[in-house]
């Protein structure tokens, strides 16, 4: 099937457009085509053909291109009717990513998926603007990735948890055989140089056991601090 818009002809192979007119934006890349009700953003080549002194531009697209652009992103189910997008399987081309993300969100929303978690590493930072354009928000970030989320069910309030906003602290209360309590002066921090005596304290690192953290802070502020 071939759709013609002025001097622009579009070859669609055997897929058909089901009566929908494709929208095209030229300039080295075609922007979108409609197939089975989905809006596809595709990359195609433009060829200039001479015919009767006039120049025609023909956009060729294979069925494989349509299938790739229309495929859902790989994702796993979480325990709360949500989706965790598999970061390692994301396409690197922002245009391909945007098209597949759009199709995925349509499919997941229709299936009742509640929330979507999208983790993008530093090497995938070019995909962030496309995700933002499709309603994703920043949840939290670490030095090598950013986590983004989108709540899909507009009729239900979002239950996605907020980013962690608290730190866990520990203190070591040490008493010797004479009933004396160990106190220290801080060499760093808000109490430095204030002459305040205090028990050894500090912040628990991610994944650290509380007992291990207390022992570590005790050593850091006594033996290792000498």
UniProtKB/TrEMBL annotation:
<dbReference type="InterPro" id="IPR000086">
    <property type="entry name" value="NUDIX_hydrolase_dom"/>
</dbReference>
<dbReference type="InterPro" id="IPR015797">
    <property type="entry name" value="NUDIX_hydrolase-like_dom_sf"/>
</dbReference>
<protein>
    <recommendedName>
        <fullName>Nudix hydrolase domain-containing protein</fullName>
    </recommendedName>
</protein>
<dbReference type="Pfam" id="PF00293">
    <property type="entry name" value="NUDIX"/>
</dbReference>
<feature type="domain" description="Nudix hydrolase">
    <location>
        <begin position="165"/>
        <end position="226"/>
    </location>
</feature>
<dbReference type="InterPro" id="IPR003293">
    <property type="entry name" value="Nudix_hydrolase6-like"/>
</dbReference>
<dbReference type="GO" id="GO:0051287">
    <property type="term" value="F:NAD binding"/>
</dbReference>
<dbReference type="Pfam" id="PF18290">
    <property type="entry name" value="Nudix_hydro"/>
</dbReference>
<dbReference type="GO" id="GO:0047631">
    <property type="term" value="F:ADP-ribose diphosphatase activity"/>
</dbReference>
<comment type="similarity">
    <text>Belongs to the Nudix hydrolase family.</text>
</comment>
<dbReference type="GO" id="GO:0035529">
    <property type="term" value="F:NADH pyrophosphatase activity"/>
</dbReference>
<dbReference type="InterPro" id="IPR040618">
    <property type="entry name" value="Pre-Nudix"/>
</dbReference>
<keyword id="KW-0378">Hydrolase</keyword>
């Amino acid at each position: 099937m071939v759709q013609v818009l002025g001097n622009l002809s579009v070859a669609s192979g055997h897929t058909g457009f089901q009566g929908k007119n494709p929208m095209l934006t030229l300039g080295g890349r075609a922007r979108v085509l409609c197939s089975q009700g989905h809006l596809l953003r595709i990359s195609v080549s433009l060829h200039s053909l001479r015919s009767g002194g006039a120049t025609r531009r023909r956009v060729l697209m294979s069925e494989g291109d349509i299938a790739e652009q229309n495929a859902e992103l790989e994702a796993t189910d979480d325990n709360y009717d949500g989706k965790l997008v598999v970061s390692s399987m994301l396409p690197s081309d922002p245009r391909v990513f945007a098209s597949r993300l759009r199709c995925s969100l349509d499919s997941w929303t229709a299936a009742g998926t509640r929330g979507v978690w999208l983790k993008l590493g530093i090497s995938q930072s070019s995909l962030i603007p496309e995700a933002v354009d499709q309603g994703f928000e920043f949840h939290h970030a670490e030095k090598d990735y950013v986590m983004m989320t989108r709540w899909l069910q507009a009729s239900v309030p979002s239950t996605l948890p907020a980013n962690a906003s608290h730190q866990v602290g520990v203190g070591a209360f040490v008493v010797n055989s004479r009933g004396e309590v160990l106190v220290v002066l801080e060499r760093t921090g808000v109490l430095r140089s204030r002459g305040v005596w205090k028990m050894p304290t500090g912040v628990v690192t991610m994944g650290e056991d509380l007992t291990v953290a207390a022992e570590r802070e005790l050593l850091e502020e006594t033996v290792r601090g000498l």
